[in-house]
Amino acid sequence: MHFNHLRLGSSLSSKSLHVFKLSRAIGCSRRFLPLSTAAATLKTDPHQPEKRPCLIDFEPLFHSCTQASHVKCLHAILVVSGRFTSNFASTRLLNLYAHHGDACSSLSVFDQIKAKDSYTWNSMVSAYVRNGYLNEATKIFRQFVLTSGLRPDVYTFPPVIKSCKDVNSGKKLHCCVYKMGFQPDVFVGASLVHMYARFGFLDIARKMFDEMPRRDLGSWNAMISGYCQNGDNDAAMSMLDSMRLEGMKMDSVTVCSLLPICAQTNDLTSGLLIHLYVVKHGLEFDVYVNNALLNMYAKFGLLGIAQQIFDEMRERDLVSWNSMVAAYEQNDDPSTALQFFMKMQENKIKSDILTLVSLAPIVGGMGDISNGKSLHSFIVRRDWMILNVALGNAVMDMYAKLGFMDYADRVFEQLPVRDVISWNTLISGYAQNGLANEAIVTYEKMKKHEEEVIPNHGTWVSALSAYSNVGSVKQGMKVHAAVIKNSLFSDVYVGTCLVDMYGKCGRIEDAMKMFYHIPRDTSVPWNAVISCHGMHGHGKEALTLFENMQVEGVRPDHITFVALLSACSHSGMVDEGWRWFRSMQEDFSMKPSLKHFGCMVDLLGRAGHLEKAYGLIMSMPFPPDSSIWGALLGACKIHGNVEMGAIASKQLFNVDSENAGYYVLLSNIYANVGRWEGVKVIRSLARDRGLKKIPGWSSIEVDGKVDVFYMGNRSHPRFDQIHNELRELTAKIKSIGYVPNHKDVLQDVEDDEKDDILATHSERLAIAFGSSMLQMIPRALLMHDQAF
DNA sequence: TTAGGGTTAG
């Protein structure tokens, strides 16, 4: 019966008005006035004025509470009608609050119940567990056992077992259940089985499961989900087979446990079969099932299907919304992800920690620090930083993406708990922002905390990329040793980083040795090895490797072609470059991206075919970005083509007026041909727009420590020593015939000043430092100048 | 009328 059937009149009596006021006072909306009117009418039946409504009269009202505000309203009615004092009614109210996520109100009701029975105690424990207040649940359970004088029953244990945080407290409860003489029946038994499985004690769980006197679907699910959560997918599947042999059919819980492992094992077929089962058995209206399906399709990159499931869901919860935001974020569509987040706000869906975990990388990618700061303060205001390491890590990563490593570091310092990902995020953040030295220092610091945090794949990958950026092969080799010690050398990603490190440091032979040690059935290591050959001008070797890759049946991807085209570009192999640029489209059906066009513009430009490069840009199927025009502008500098340089820079400033580097490049083109007026115009333009070029830097490794130098930098503690060494070296090389090339100084200054500028170039500072530390021979400086 | 087993993350 619906509460509307109880409505007997439409005008409000004084008592019903009282109910209304009371219901407003405790926060329920006017829309639910009929509920209070109905109850008030119950009280004021003119024919039986003394008769208060019986508990049975409230039954339909209990069932009508589909929203939190309904519960508040019913609460008011119970108070007014004098039925709140009934233990039964108030405990049901307690449960209703808990079901609607309001454990605080549950507690307030609980406190008002004077003669609590075990139903009341059990309900309060489960109210806390249901809403995630595990510590409070344990406290209430203790009070129940120690102070109430009542005996826990079979209803008590399942929620308490569920709230265990570690296996030891679980074991204690297991003993307690055993001592009190409870049979491990289906509920308590399944709880214990799942508790052991959850903490990874699958053998104990399995033994208990096998010895259970009775097993229902829930018991099977406890065991299957235990295997799934521990990544033992084969055991989960064989358990499923046994379950079916015993005539049990999968329900929504079984389905929800299995769907995530379909995505993990890349088994789309099983996922589709389960989806079919869901539809056939009418499980498609379960929110959990829909969320699990949605997530599985998103993990396979099938966003269209995920979106369709979301659109067709009758009921959506926070997990559904979070999953959609994460789905688009993880599939490189941050703008749609952001739209979903906005829609959440429009629909008044409150974000939780996981919403923010997905939102942080989106904000990081938007490039606006003020948004980043508001997101951070939103989290801090709610104290979520303390609750969840993953969120802290996500915020660090966001600041790293925005280029604010000082903020990322501050967040790191303030984290109450740091796990391996916190360290990895900081290290890779520094490395990605060009602060290789800081990355290395952090990695060294991490090693000192080895007892608390064990490095993983991500650590080696970040550390290696930092060492390869500063060209520190000795330190890189130490990481290599650590990788071998941890038996990770056969991991494709770690191995590829080693290839990359040796390659970037110029140790091509070592890179090749490493390459032949790692599995090469995917494009990942091939891309690295092709790229490092290309980088050092070994275009032919890069091409040979590319051919070998095809012989071994490994399909090249977009990145392979970027590596290959850039190898052609660095070796001046124009014809080969064209050939593969066409081949990728014709033979491999790949559409060239901006990066491929960028390589081609670079290839043609470097070779002096500026008109052809311009023609290629004009034929592109999408608008060229700053990297394309930047490549053309760079080529104009090499070939001193002022006219084309002006065209390229005009386009460049249209698409990216913020990058100071391009202004410098154009002014250098003018400077090269001595057009100092042009230089002045461009420089003042850059100054007016408040742009400052990020200075170039050079690094050198001495005794395992890496030092970084910037042009004209005087802040080094050994500055005087370096300066003296530099003077001596310059004098020496001048005495053996070195003539400074003033053309390389792109400023309109006197020749002696040009000497000074050349002499304090960051690479020279680094070499002078190295020389002063190691008594390096001046030959290094000579060699360096040739490459200048 | 209280209970077990389920979906999202850095």
Give the distance, in angstroms, between the N- and C-terminal Cα atoms.
88 Å
The number of helical runs is 45
Query: How do the strands of the widest beta sheet line up side by side?
Result: 1-2
Radius of gyration: 35 Å
Task: State mean pLDDT (0 to 100 scale).
Answer: 84
Shape: elongated
Number of strands: 2
At a glance:
GO terms for molecular function: RNA binding; zinc ion binding. This is DYW domain-containing protein. This protein is mainly α and 788 residues long.
What does this structure look like?
Residues 737-770 form the DYW domain. It comes from Trapa natans (Water chestnut). GO terms for molecular function: RNA binding; zinc ion binding. Keywords: Repeat. Belongs to the PPR family. PCMP-H subfamily. The chain is an all-alpha fold and 788 residues long. The chain has a domain at 700-787. Helix content is 69%, strand content 2%. It is built from 45 helices and two strands. The protein has a two-stranded antiparallel ribbon with strand order 1-2. Helix 11 (186-198) runs parallel beside helix 13 and helix 27 packs antiparallel against helix 28. The longest helix has 17 residues, at 719-735. It is elongated, with a radius of gyration of 35 Å. The structure holds one DNA strand of 10 nucleotides.
